[in-house]
Specification:
Helix content is about 55%, strand content about 10%. It is an alpha+beta fold. The protein has one domain (about 1-460): Orthogonal Bundle (Cytochrome p450), CATH 1.10.630. It has a 4-stranded mixed sheet, with helices on both faces. Strand 5 (about 345) and strand 6 form a beta hairpin. Helix 8 (about 120-150) packs antiparallel against helix 9 and helix 14 (about 265-295) crosses helix 19. The protein starts with a helix and ends with a strand. Bound molecules: protoporphyrin IX containing FE. Protoporphyrin IX containing FE binds near residues 101, 278, 335, 338 and 417. Protoporphyrin IX containing FE binds near residues 274, 285, 404, 411 and 417.
Length: about 475
């Protein structure tokens, strides 16, 4: 962000105050600066693309930040081969290990094929749909019931993290940590993943040598990351010892479609990566969805009407709910930025000439809030924008709606994510009233995942008692 502030000055003469803010946010990582909102503002003022090359001597990086749909299509699809994630991405996300998520080129193609065979198979989806409904009925609903009966205040973000975490563990390795049973305390694994995301965000912002220095000194977010890494490894080891007790043969289990190397470390990396891809994203959308719906009671009423006409199980018929989730994903995409590295020099459709090794940052969150992309009402929560006059979900060009990424590297779990989100949201809206605490501050964290900084505190009332 520091670099963005510098560049914004050179591009449009924005005040020096911005540069100062950028500098301060690096020097004092806990400074209250809403970086994602600032990014949208700066991009809107700079024709959707900011190119920073003149400061590479200072930052050690050549960076281009864009929310221009034409550039996005070029980077993510038309000239995909020139834009791998790159070695820095792998380094920033080192806690996830070596998997599909960090792979590039031939290695990525191979891993992607294996994962797609598995995640797109109808048997996988059928099995997961059963697991999702089971977890809702036997895990989530009893907690909602207790919270409602005892008139407790609950953190919905924490609740959704635990709920999706249990599903993600079951999906990845057939293990249920029963995180929801610890409803009164924060789940350590979820907290660790949040710390990983914050540290990764800081690494993306900082000059390479600076975050490495922080790691060496064991300070700041790097200190938190170290502890988070230990927690993740400890929880995984606990899971494996339980599986070992049950006579689990990981070498037999660990072959395609779960990845290509049959080692314990390979298994750990794949399981943790899949959980990461599933839990943080899906629980974040659910949290922002309930926040948005609470602020727009007419939308909640429409969803409720829609559900009352059919069974909540008929998820495909819940068009308005689907639209409300898409609207949440537009305004609060769990991954606010995507990052690629130019393998060779290139010219983007916007006319920007970039050098080899330029880090191209796709500003997903900013794109959802651009007047030029979504119209004058871009800041409003309007599920209607997703529905055609025939009452179907509108197809939006993939390079305009990037919450699930786009092109050959598009998310492989989109369908499952919608199943989890729709089943969970439909069950809650049909049976409960959610009352977000008045004046609760709903702020995003400065992180690679759009977590809420203070959680989402709410009361829950059963509608039928
Ligand atoms: C609302 C929920 C979700 C959102 C918004 C989401 C979003 C994304 C995004 C933006 C990427 C691209 C990341 C990048 O290129 O840097 C991605 C990749 C991926 N996602 Fe998801 N995701 C969600 C849920 C899931 C779930 C539930 C699964 C697993 C079942 C999953 C599996 C994957 C995989 C395997 C990739 C890697 C694709 C590749 O690199 O080829 N995602 N997701």
């Amino acid at each position: 962000m520091i670099i963005l502030f510098f560049a914004s000055k050179s591009c449009s003469g924005l005040p020096h105050k911005r540069i100062l803010l950028g500098l301060l946010s690096i020097l004092f990582p806990n400074l209250e600066v809403r970086l994602h909102d600032k990014m949208a503002e700066i991009l809107e003022q700079n024709k959707k693309t900011v190119h920073i090359h003149q400061y590479s001597w200072l930052t050690g990086a050549k960076i281009l930040v864009t929310s221009d749909p034409a550039n996005v299509r070029h980077v993510m699809s038309t000239n995909f081969a020139n834009y791998p994630k790159g070695l820095k991405w792998r380094e920033h996300m080192d806690v996830l290990g070596d998997t599909l998520f960090s792979a590039d080129l031939k290695e990525w193609e191979h891993e992607r094929k294996l994962a797609r065979c598995f995640l797109s198979h109808h048997k996988f989806h059928d099995a997961m749909t059963k697991i999702v409904w089971d977890r809702i009925q036997t895990g989530l609903v009893p907690v909602l019931q207790r919270v409602s009966e005892q008139a407790l205040v609950v953190d919905l973000q924490d609740l959704f993290q635990k709920h999706i975490l249990d599903i993600a563990w079951i999906m990845s390795i057939g293990y249920n940590p029963n995180s929801l049973s610890t409803e009164s305390q924060k789940d350590l694994f979820s907290l660790a993943l949040e710390d990983v995301c914050e540290a990764a965000f800081t690494r993306f912002l900082m000059p390479h040598s600076l975050w490495k220095l922080h790691r060496w000194l064991g300070i700041g977010k790097e200190k938190k990351l170290k502890h988070a890494w230990e927690t993740i490894d400890r929880v995984f080891a606990d899971c494996m010892s339980k599986k070992d007790e049950d006579g689990f043969n990981y070498q037999a289990f660990y072959h395609p479609p779960f990845g290509s190397t049959a080692t314990r470390k390979g298994l750990r990396d794949n399981v943790i990566s899949l959980i990461f891809a599933t839990q943080d994203t899906t629980s974040s959308v659910l949290t922002w969805f309930f926040y948005s719906v609470a602020k727009h009671p007419y939308a909640e009423a429409k969803i409720r009407d829609e559900i009352s006409e059919i069974s909540p199980q008929e998820l495909n018929k819940l068009v308005y709910l689907h639209a409300a989730l898409c609207e949440t994903l537009r305004l609060y995409p769990p991954g606010p930025v995507l990052s690629r590295t130019a393998a060779d020099a290139d010219t983007l459709p916007s006319g920007h000439r970039i050098e080899r090794d330029t880090n191209v940052v796709i500003a997903v969150h900013a794109m959802g809030r651009m007047r030029s992309v979504w119209g004058d009402d871009c800041h409003e929560f309007k599920p209607e924008r997703w529905i055609t006059e025939h009452g179907e979900i509108k197809r939006v060009p993939y390079y305009q709606f990037l919450a699930f990424s786009a092109g050959p590297r598009i998310c492989l779990g989109k369908e499952l994510a919608f199943t989890m989100m729709k089943a969970t949201a439909a069950t809650i809206i049909h049976n409960y009233e959610i009352r977000i605490l008045k004046d609760h501050p709903a702020e995003p964290k400065n992180s690679i995942v759009f977590h809420m900084k203070h959680g989402l505190m709410a009361r829950i009332n059963n509608r039928w008692t």
